[in-house]
Amino acid sequence: MEIKNVFPANENELEDLGSGLRRKVCAYNDNLMCVEVHFETGTVAPVHHHPHEQITYVVSGRFEFEIDGEKKVLGPGDSAYKQGNLPHGATCLEAGMLIDMFTPHREDFV
């Protein structure tokens, strides 16, 4: 993969995934990816897992995260870590935005 160092916001579109969920890939290379995820109130990201490590930072809104069967409500400034293949999901309690970081990058997102 050719290394790209700058990803202007206007070059990456917000993708409507349906059901109140939108996503924008912000920057990535082989080893790391940053993704902006927008949720409408009531949107559910069902419990799932993937081999990537993931850190989620809550920019705005309130979310009930389920991580490995444990539920926690997180708000602005909170973050969560999910190791690879750990079951996790989220329900949006108040519309907001998350920043997700993945390692390695999610090939299925690009």
Write the layout of secondary structure elements.
Blueprint: E1 15-18, E2 21-28, E3 33-39, E4 44-48, E5 53-67, E6 70-74, E7 79-82, E8 88-103
Antiparallel strand pairs: 1-2, 2-3, 3-8, 4-8, 5-6, 5-7, 5-8
Description of the structure:
Strands 1, 2, 3, 4, 5, 6, 7 and 8 form an 8-stranded antiparallel sheet that branches. The chain is 0% helix and 58% strand. It has a domain at 32-100: Jelly Rolls, CATH 2.60.120. The protein has strands spanning 15-18, 21-28, 33-39, 44-48, 53-67, 70-74, 79-82, 88-103. It has 110 residues and is mostly beta strands.
Count of extended strands: 8
Number of helices: 0
**Euclidean distance between termini CA atoms:** 12 Å
Q: Which CATH first-tier class of the domain at 32-100 would you pick? A: Mainly Beta
What spatial form do the alpha-carbon principal axes imply?
Answer: globular
Q: Look up the CATH topology of the domain at 32-100.
A: Jelly Rolls
The whole-angstrom Rg is 14 Å
Tell me which CATH architecture of the domain at 32-100 applies here: Sandwich
Average predicted confidence as pLDDT: 96
Decide which structural class fits the backbone. Answer: mainly beta
Note the main sheet.
8 strands, antiparallel
> Spans of 5+ residues with little confidence (pLDDT < 50)?
none
Query: What is the CATH superfamily label of the domain at 32-100?
Result: Jelly Rolls
Bin the strand percentage. over 45%
Order of helical and strand elements: EEEEEEEE
